[in-house]
What we know:
Strand order of the largest sheet: 1-2-3-4
Mean pLDDT: 88
Oligomer: single chain
Helix content: 55-70%
Largest sheet: 4 strands, antiparallel
Shape: flat
Number of helices: 29
Amino acid sequence: xxxxxxxxEDDLRARAGSRSFQRGLGYLDAVAGLEVxxxxxxxxxxxxxxxxxxxxxxxxxxxxxxxxxPYGQEGHFCKxxxxxxxxxxxxAEAIPRQRAAxxxxxxxxxxxxxxxxxxxxxxxxxxQLADDRELRRRLELRATAAxxxxxxxxxxxxxxxxxxPFARYGYVEYADAHAYARQAQEVVAALRTLxxxxxxxxxxxLTREAIEALCRTxxxxxxxxxxxxxxxxxxxxxxxxxxxxxxPDPDDVARWLVGHLxxxxxxxxxxxxxxxREVLGEAGLARVRHLATEAWQxxxxxxxxxxxxxxxxxxxxxxxxxxxxxAADLSPTGATHLRIAEELDAAGxxxxxxxxAERGVKAACKAPNFDGRLADYVCARYTRAGRTDxxxxxRRDRFRAHRSLDAYQQLRTAAKAADRWDRERETALEALRExxxxxxxxxxxxxxxxxxxxxDGDLDAAWRAAHDGADEKQWLTLADRSAxxxxxxxxxxYLRLIEPLKxxxxxxAYQQMARLLLGARACHRELGTQQEFTEYLAALRTDxxxxxxxxxxxxxxxx
Length: 559
């Protein structure tokens, strides 16, 4: 069925959430007027009121829903959307026929319209304009673009991009963003009409204003679905088309492009300088490079400045210039060194790449937020060259700077490959023992020493270390791994962890108690003391008998 309609119950549940999905099951008999077209579904659902529901099938985002109910107007995939979707799934066999019928109706409508005279069409359109204010405004703008002066067109454009009619609380909410986007899309159509009517220079100037107006507005809109961003992209395309037709001053275009891309409002509209190559020409591109370089030199750490310079020098294929851009603002994490190394690698300059990576490791290895990918890069290069001693040195230095389980594991892997793990392990464990002695009180989580010993499978040493400050998670891991080899010790852990759960309610706590009891039972079996466990469990059930969900969960686990 999912193959026929484009979604299944799991898709509806994921989109709506479990609560709305379950509530939607109760509205299946309230669905009426179902229509299925190519990529869309409409219906009415009787709830507190009669709500119009529309589902759309999006290739990337799956099934989307729009409902006129209050919850749906907040942007949620509501129970009414679920009911319509489930109704479609239950009528899956009829869907191809319904789609064919919808297509036939569309064809019939098209044929009927084509058969009408000009006066009949005008009469029909006037009737629609009288009833549909939004349609009237859109067509008025197109008419203005075709016949009016630039000032009038400008006023209309800015009025259509004004978010205030859609901002009920000073902000365009998700539920209203699509309506705003539909209105803003009319600006794109009008400006393209203006350019097509022989006024591309006016269209280019107005489109530039429209882009800036939309960018200022964008922060006031919940555009989670990207509908307004799509309009912004269409505006950028319209501007480029108008510039290609008008051939404006390249210097003026260069200044606007750089100013827009480096300004505070450049994020809303994605413009690529190199799309304007034909408009700018060699002189204009040189001007863009000059302006971008000046801005970058003034603010080398600026994100927008760096990004524009990267785009320019990458397009020019100038690796040295790209390295210079990165090198002007090296990250203390080593991430920039890695980017430089990768660019030099791609250019076939392996030795320089390694040198930059080594400098990055040396400079950033002790940083708490060191980019581990840089160490991985250097170690991979050393490994390919057979320099296992260098790999061990890098992993050892990182472990000394940041003694984590991950760093310990990486050191172990490197040292084993170099046949040096016994010596490296003892040194590493001694450092972790010192950490455990110094940080036993008031730390977050248990000592890394215990995690390392558990990861090594050295359970005897882990038990000894645990008594100096293991946390609850480490105790439980140790007990789980030792139930057959250290059953008495593991049993003590399980029983101790059960005690605080006796004072707790909630299924999560009950499931954890059952898990611990299963562990305790396994230990008693190893010890041959099953009768003790039977008596303990009976006493626990008597003490906790008021917790009906706990009793049910214990029954489910055979306890």
